[in-house]
Each structure stands twice: as C-alpha cells, then as structure tokens.
Design brief:
Elements: H1 2-19, E1 22-23, E2 32-34, E3 39-44, E4 50-55, E5 58-63, E6 69-74, E7 84-88, E8 91-106, H2 108-111, H3 120-125, E9 132-136, E10 153-155, H4 166-178, E11 183-189, H5 208-223, H6 228-241, E12 258-261, E13 265-267, E14 271-281, H7 283-289, E15 292-295, E16 301-306, E17 309-313, E18 324-327, E19 336-346, E20 351-352, E21 357-359, E22 362-364, E23 370-378, H8 384-389, H9 394-397, H10 406-412, E24 422-426, H11 435-452, E25 460-463, H12 481-489, E26 496-499, H13 516-529, E27 541-548, E28 551-557, E29 563-565, E30 571-575, E31 580-583, E32 596-599, E33 605-607, E34 610-614, E35 617-621, E36 630-633, E37 643-645, E38 654-657
Helix pairs in contact: 4-13, 11-12
C-alpha cells in the first residue's frame, strides 16, 4: 500500500510540475520591460490552464492554448522603474525593471565583444550599473520559424561585460547617461552573415532566387537526415575503405620541414600537412592586450599547437561551419618568440587555410612572407564516383547560418512580439558585392521586423559602413561607397537614423576597435527619435548640385547647424590593435575640403582642385573637368573627407547629378 501511495503522490507532483505556468526566458529574473501601453508577456503551461500575470499592481488573465502557450498584454506606460516582481500564477521573476528595451542585431561589428574593443581594460573596470541589463540570444539557425529561444538576463558588471557586444554596451551606457531610464539590450547578432539570413520568408517574396536557394538547401538537408554519431561512423568507414584515415593529435614533427611562401592552398588532393612559424609576443601582449586570433571557417580539420602543445582546433562536425579561435593562455611565460604549428587534415578534397588572418603582430597573406611546411601524407586524387559516396552531414557541413531565413527563424522570430523601444543594427559588409539587392532587402527587413514587433513606426537606428581598405588616389574607385549609398536611401523610411562612420574605421581591420563613436552617434539619434529631444544627431546631407562657369555648387541640408571643414589629421589609423598609423596624403591638397571629385561626360572622375565651404554650400572646381556632369564626396572605401556639421557629425557620402 505504501508503494502505491508513493506512486500516486509522484504522479500528482509530476502533473503539477507540468502544469506550472512558466515565463519565456525573456521575462526571467533581472529582465527589463518596455515602458509602453502594450507590453506582451508570454510563456508556457499545461494546455487549458488559466494563467494570471501581474506586476506593479497591473494584471491580466488568459488561458494556455492547446500547445501550452499563453500570452497577455500589459499596460506599463505609467509604471515606475522598479524593481518589481513579475508573477505568472505561482511562478515569480524577480528584480524586474521597466524602462527602454533595444534589440541589437547584425553581423560581426555588432558581435565584436568589449574585450576586443578599444580601451577595453578601463571599460570593463568601470562597467558598474545595476540599471543596465543584457540578454544574449543563444545562436541558432533553423529551417522553420521557432517559438522558443535560449538566453538569460544579466546585470552588467566587470565580471561579465567583457563578453558583451561592445557597440550595444556603449550604446546602452550612453542612453543611461542621457536618461534616467533603465536600459535592457537584447543582443541577437552573428558575424559573417548576409542580410537574407535575417529575413523572414515573407519579406523575401520579392527575391525568387533566394526562395529557390532556401528550398534547395532544405532539400539537401532532408537527403541526409543522419544524427551526428551515425554520420561520423559513415565518414570513418569511407575514409578507411579508401585508405584516407587519420589519427588525431600527434606530436609536432621534428624533421623534414621546408621553407616556402605563405599560401592558402597546401595540398591539392587531400592529406595531412603542417605549417610552422615564429610568433613574437611582447610584454604588453602578455600582460594586457593578449593574442586573440580567429581563423575563419577552415574547410578541413585544424589543430593549433603553441610551443608543442595543442591549444585549439575543430572537429569533423565543425568543418566549414565554425571559426577556429586561438587565445594566448593567461598562465605561462610567452614573451619573445613562440613556435606556432598548425596541422590540417582533409580526407575528401584539397587542404587549405583561410587567408588572410592575423595572429598577434603577424599578418598572413598569400604570397607575402614565408613559413615552414611539413607534408605528413598526401592522398591521390579521387574519382567522381568516390567523391559522390563521401558522407555529408549537410546541416553541419554547410554554413547554414548564411542561408535565407535561417537566423530570422532561430534568433529573431522567437523574440516576437517583444515590446521594443527601438532596434539598433550594424550590418552590410557581407552585402558590398551586390548593393542593389542589399538596398531593397534592407528596406524589406525594416518593414517586416516592424510588423512582427507590432509597431509600424518602431525606430530603426543603423550604422553605415565604416572606412576600410587602403587609402586610394584613384577617384574612379567606388569601393564600399555604393553599399553606403543604399544604406543612406533607407533614411527615406520614417523613424530611421544612421550613424555615418567614414571617420571611424581602420584600413586593415574590418572590425574597428572604436565602438564608442558609432554607439554615441546611434544614441544621439535615439534621443530624438525615441525620447523626443530636440538635439542634433545628423550630419550634413547634400540635396542638389548646380553648375555655373565651370564650378559646381552643392547645396546641403545642415539640420540646424553650420557647415564646417575640420582640420585634417596628419595620420590615419591602419590597425589600432597594433598601434599602426599612416601618413595622410591628400588627393586635393589645395582644397579646403578633401575628397570631392567631379565627373565629365565620358564618365571619367577627377579629384577637385578646390572645394570651399560657403554658408550651407560647397563650391567645387577641377581644371580637368570644365563641364562636370556629376559630383561625389567621400565616395570610396576609405575616404578622408573633413566636411562636418558644427555639432560634430560627419557629412553623409553622396553622388549627385549636376543640373
């Protein structure tokens, strides 16, 4: 009888646990909720269970649906900042604040962590604000829209801020300084990802080629639906049958090394090869800045050895899908020369290492410099039939996070319909080769996300691409300018704001360490578009250009400020992490404003001889172009223009027809 009673009690306890109303992680301890009239709050419970949600004396009731999901909408517009407790029946989330909630999304310049940004030691040391909270959405890419997500709210502190998005943190800190409002950041970004990965299937309706690609990818996934263990068994069997097996983690070879030029392709038909080089490490790097290297998604198995000991690498499930990271260990003596050996294995095709990459003070580019190489074994070429039989665990092998809708499904859709104050976005480097597509896709994404978050006028604040690549003396080199122009076009949408960053990049680093500058400019836009302040937040924008007597007059909208030409710096940043700068050589040394150019009827561009500020206009001339038909400003990848508003915001790059 005791045994029967015990079983009944266990069943009852189990049923009660299953029926317990729980919150989505977005509403867990330390969450920040938006101070709005309509704030959706949701979670799960036993199907049909009645759920009462309450906070700060405000409550709402609902019933869990057949799938166990429930949602209520609360009016929190008149609530104080908190902290409060949020209740769903007997479940309690503690230390809830009510204020501003921002979604921070995009690619690697949004992902870049505080620890890798400028002045990181001071930033980390001073990150003490219990009214600033951060929710990091766990990375996820899916074929279909998801309703669940992983993550948790954290109170920003020196113990955790090092791994937060530097841009998002600096933005939130700036908002905290300007307002009394608690700030919550929901961070959902991933490096190296194209815009179509962040778009819903509905927002891609204008792009049938993208929808076709999505269908092909899903078909390939379905063609090999094995689990990881089964895939590895099949792969090992295939390698064994063709005598292409490998034994992992051998010691670094001592003999038979040969010096050769650095190159990406190491073996044509597969096998095992080692490369080796000396890595100089300074006392500063040992004690402060460290060594932080990312080798982008190698298409083979890689192992990195530091002074004979393996310190990093990947596995067959991560090939071509994940970056390989190398961080100088915190313990040990590494000042001076260290030996780095990298072992690469590919059983199916060529063996190569992604280039360029930088490790410490050394940059590795094909054909530039030498390293030592050791061929452990080289395989013969495969026949087409043998290649076709090689197992492919498609979802892992393919870079799924780069395909249409994958990140939207896994990392944005589960957030709907969270009450947001605004969205901040840093993206575009992956779109430079197709700016026409990017421009239309970007506008579709903004409209679609606003709809999904149930706010058609939700402020959308974004970063324009920062300066990057070498400086150029060629006025015909448009570089990243066309992508910047389609980003500018998005300002035609209501409640959008853009941070111009043509003065905030690095020639050799696509990830500028300075994230406080773009964060500050986004925060300035937020103060106007979100909080209704009447503060300056925009740089001068060219509206028209007219020609007379061989010169062009460009008319600017200056947004309540004056048009000014700042003094040009003598140097520009090549790579901040290495303290490298270059002498700034002007293309228009006699001009007051640098980086204006004019185009003749043949389509040839020439730098301006003169560019002079006159009120809210700039007068531009070039002896080489007596009859100009177009005018440009800062129209290259890494411009040097010095045209600003008197409030400190850089002018927006442009190309205009001359009337």
């Amino acid at each position: 009888m005791k045994r029967i009673i015990f079983s009944v009690l266990c069943f009852a306890a189990s049923f009660e646990l299953c029926g317990k109303a729980v919150f989505s992680p977005l509403f867990g301890d330390h969450a920040v909720l938006a101070k709005r009239e309509i704030v959706p709050v949701w979670g799960s419970a036993e199907p049909g269970e009645k759920v009462k949600v309450s906070i700060a004396g405000i409550s709402a009731e609902t019933t869990a649906g057949k799938n166990g999901r429930w949602m209520v909408r609360l009016n929190l517009s008149k609530c104080g900042n908190g902290p409060f407790e949020l209740h769903a029946n007997d479940t309690v989330s503690k230390d809830i604040l009510i204020g501003s909630v921002y979604l921070a999304s995009g690619q690697s310049n949004m992902t870049l962590q505080v620890q890798s940004s400028a002045d990181s030691a001071n930033v980390i040391r001073n990150a003490k604000d219990d009214k600033l909270r951060y929710f990091d959405v766990v990375r996820s890419w899916k074929n279909t829209p998801q309703s669940e997500l992983k993550g948790k709210w954290e109170i920003v502190s020196p113990d955790n801020v090092w791994r937060f998005s530097a841009l998002a943190y600096h933005f939130a800190a700036a908002i905290r300084q300007k307002t009394a409002s608690p700030v919550g950041i929901v961070h959902s970004s991933l490096g190296g990802t194209p815009i179509e990965a962040w778009m819903s299937v509905e927002s891609l309706a204008d792009f049938p080629d993208m929808l076709a690609l999505k269908q092909r990818v899903e078909s390939r996934n379905a063609a090999y639906p094995q689990k990881e263990k089964a895939y590895l068994q099949d792969l090992l069997q295939w390698e064994k049958q063709l005598n292409r097996s490998d034994k992992r983690f051998p010691p670094v070879p001592q003999n038979n090394w040969q010096k050769t030029k650095m190159q990406s392709l190491l073996l044509k038909n597969g096998g095992v090869v080692w490369i080796k080089f000396k890595l100089p490490v300074t006392a500063l790097q040992v004690n402060k800045t460290g060594i932080n290297t990312v080798i982008g998604r190698p298409d083979c198995i890689m192992d990195i050895y530091l002074n004979g000991k393996r310190v990093s690498g990947n596995n067959p499930l991560n090939v071509a899908r994940k970056d390989v990271f190398f961080v100088l260990p915190r313990k040990g003596s590494f000042e001076g020369d260290n030996e780095i050996a990298i072992r690469l294995f590919n059983s199916g095709s060529s063996v190569s290492i992604p280039m360029p990459f930088t490790m410490g003070s050394k940059k590795f580019e094909a054909g530039k410099g030498e390293w030592e190489i050791h061929v452990e074994k080289e395989f013969p070429p495969l026949s087409p039939e043998e290649i076709a039989k090689r197992p492919v665990f498609t979802e892992k092998f393919m870079q799924m996070d780069r395909f249409p809708t994958q990140l939207y499904n896994g990392m944005i859709h589960p957030l709907h319909p969270l009450a947001l104050t605004a969205i901040i976005w840093y993206h575009g480097e992956s779109g430079v080769n197709n700016p026409g597509f990017y421009g239309k896709a970007f506008r579709n994404l903004i409209g679609d996300w606003r709809k999904r978050f149930e706010n058609p006028e939700l402020p959308f604040l974004f970063c324009q691409l920062a300066s990057h690549h070498p400086k150029t003396a060629d006025p015909n080199n448009a570089g990243w300018a066309r992508l910047r122009s389609v980003q500018t076009a998005a300002l035609q949408l209501k409640n959008t704001g853009m941070a111009v960053l043509t003065d905030a990049g690095e020639s050799e680093d696509i990830h500028p360490q300075d994230k406080s500058t773009p964060a500050g400019r986004l925060a300035a836009a937020a103060m106007v578009l979100v909080y209704g302040k009447n503060d300056p937040y925009q740089g001068p924008e060219a509206r028209s250009a007219s020609a007379a007597d061989g010169s062009v007059t460009v008319f600017f909208e200056c947004h309540g400020a004056d048009l000014v030409a700042k003094d040009l710096p003598k140097e520009y940043i090549i790579r901040r992490s290495q303290n490298r700068t270059g002498k700034l050589l002007r293309n228009s040394p006699a001009a007051q404003v640098e980086n204006f150019s004019l185009c003749n009827a043949k389509g040839q561009w020439f730098w301006a001889d003169q560019a002079t500020v006159n009120g809210n206009t700039v007068i531009v001339k070039s002896k080489a172009v007596p009859d100009p038909v177009k005018v440009r400003y800062n129209w290259c990848s890494n411009p040097s223009g010095n045209l600003y508003s008197s409030t400190g915001f850089p002018a927006v790059p442009f190309e205009l027809d001359v009337k």
